[in-house]
Amino acid sequence: MQKTKRIPTLLAILLLLVIIGFIGFLFEGMTRQEAKATLSIEPKSVMITNLTDTSFTFTWQTDELATGTLLVTSSNGKKYSSFDQRDITGKMGKYLTHSVTVRTLAPSTTHDVTILSNGKKYPIDKKSFSVTTLPTLTSDTPLLDPAFGSIKTATNAPAEGALVYISLEGSQTLSTLVGTSGSWIIPLSLLRTQDGAAYITLQERINETLVVQLGTSESRVTTDTLNDAPVPDIVLGETYDFRGKDAKKTTPATLAQKPGQSVLGVSTDKAINGVALTAPVQGATLSSTKPLITGIGISGKTVTITIGITEPTIGSTVVGKDGVWKYTPKQTLAPGKQSITITTVDAKNKAVAITHTFTILKSGSQVLGDATPSGNIVETPTPIPTIEATESATPTETLTGEEIPTSGSVLPTLLLIVLGCSLFIGGGAVLLIK
Predict the structure, then answer these.
(1) Cα separation of 232 and 234, whole Å?
(2) Per-residue pLDDT averaged across 214-236, rounded?
(3) Which tens digits make up the pLDDT trace of 51-81?
(4) Using CA of residue 147, residue 152, residue 158, residue 162, what is the dihedral sign?
């Protein structure tokens, strides 16, 4: 009778140890990968800005592209969910910088806020953020003109998505995102003191501090209320001091721009008695056939907008209480040179007309800056974070404020497969030993 071949006991033990070691190595590698992925979408540099009696804004950055949502639970029991201000189409986008505004809240009410980054809740293992809306004020507002300008990167491309923070001496902090053309605008007409107890006192000249952040690049700008409409062009990564009549940069520029070339266009128009056309800037190059048009004006006044050269169309809008207006053409604009002319009345009730020319690129064309390998820009309507909700998405009140579903992890499945195989092999080895 032939004896059954068996694996030596020592060899079987070594085989089991190898299998166990392999499982441990695989588990550690997958766990480390999961932890790394979690850290890459963890919100960093979280700030609360634009705080009013009915709204507030959360801004943050992530190391990798991620969706951004706020889950808000008010002390009165109501629950809200708000999305990134660029997600006005209803489709959630993934970004490195995030700005989410919650509106239509009750004054002097405390709210618990949780950030969802790619559907994962933050803070992890900590209490949620707590924000209390400010009390309603009945005093007169300071009627400051909005601050606006253009920002580009060191490669002369629009600094799209950069976060802009602004604060005046003794004031709260306001913020916005840089649009696809590189322009930005922040209303100052409802600016409060740092404690939010009163509107800031209007003075002839008030110093301002701007901080611009995009990834690891940052610009710090000092200016004042006489030099913020517009703020002179900013190159991300530089430091500036625009106070006084002659704006002067305090550090050497890292960009040598060729004469006559500009991706962002040149904005030489100052606010004319409270009226300005802020976007598109003069000479801008855009890829959208329906660009967002923005400006500042006298609250409650009508702005008439004439768009186009060969076949002009006319539209109108009304300036909001914060002094900002915006308009999107109903008809698409043809590629090539185009113009925008706005007419309205200024603070002295005199008629004002401002014209900007710009270029619409053909479909598939790119907007390139100097030494920029790829600068394709898709112009999308980027809502201005006005203090009150006007023509922008408001938070959807929900009954549950549920976390957004995310795709399942493959880690448990793989571990079960490996564990099953190891048990099968190990069991066979034990049987052979016997």
Answers:
(1) 6
(2) 94
(3) 999 999 999 999 999 999 999 999 988 998 9
(4) negative
Residue 212 CA to residue 234 CA, distance in Å, equals 9
Average pLDDT in the 260-287 region? 68
If one compares 426 and 108, the residue with the highest pLDDT of the two is 108
The pLDDT of residue 190 is: 87
Q: Is-contact 340 305, C-beta < 8 A?
A: yes
Q: Which residues pair with 211 in a beta bridge?
A: 165, 220
Helix axes 9-40 and 411-433, enclosed angle (nearest 10): 180
CA distance 110 to 160: 33
From 393, 379, 397, select the one nearest 88 (Cα to Cα). 393
- Going from N- to C-terminal start, the domains of the chain cover 9-40+407-433, 44-397
Q: What is the pLDDT of residue 353?
A: 80
Residue 334 has pLDDT above 60, yes or no: yes
Q: Which residue in 84, 89, 180, 212 sits closest to 376, CA to CA?
A: 180
Render pLDDT for 70-112 as a digit per residue (tens, 0 to 9).
999 999 889 989 999 889 777 899 999 999 999 999 999 999 9
Q: Which residues of 48-59 are buried (b: 16+ CB within 10 A; e: fewer)?
A: bbbbbbbbbbbb
- Supply angle C-alpha 114, 118, 124, rounded to 5: 45
In contact, 327 and 317? CB cutoff 8 Å: yes
Backbone phi, psi, residue 131, to 5° = -135, 135
| Residue 356 CB-density burial (10 A; 0-12 exposed, 13-18 middle, 19+ buried) | buried
Q: Letter for the amino acid at 365? A: S
Least Cα distance to 340 among 235, 400, 269, 255 occurs for: 269
CB-CB contact of 6 with 433 (8 Å): yes
Q: In one letter, which amino acid is 247?
A: A
Q: Cα–Cα distance between 367 and 214 in angstroms, integer?
A: 20
